[in-house]
Amino acid sequence: MKSTVQTQRWYGYFFIGLSVVALILTGLVTMPLIDRALLLTTALTLLVYGLTYQPRIRRSWWRLLLWVSVGVGVIDLGLTITVAPVLLTAFLSFCLPFAFLSVLLGFLKRRIQTT
Prior knowledge:
Layout: H1 4-28, H2 33-52, H3 59-83, H4 87-114
Keywords: Membrane, Transmembrane, Transmembrane helix
Transmembrane segments: 12-31, 37-53, 65-84, 90-108
């Protein structure tokens, strides 16, 4: 049976892998600029979330990636509002379930760590 630390490390690898897939899709698939920006934001967010599960990452690197992903998210939101206000509802419909998933996974991570 795997230990909790090993299980959490594999959760991290899973989210980092999803981030890499999103980054590859951002580079290879032809899509409008707004879709690329949203996909890049998703990739950065998944990368930061996956790194939270890794025990050996330095806190300064994690904070740097977190601020970069927050900055890119703010730029995406600004781009969405200025370029295509109609896409704001699409952005929020993507953002709200993703935020719920992040909170749920964070709760589960904390619950696993305490048991």
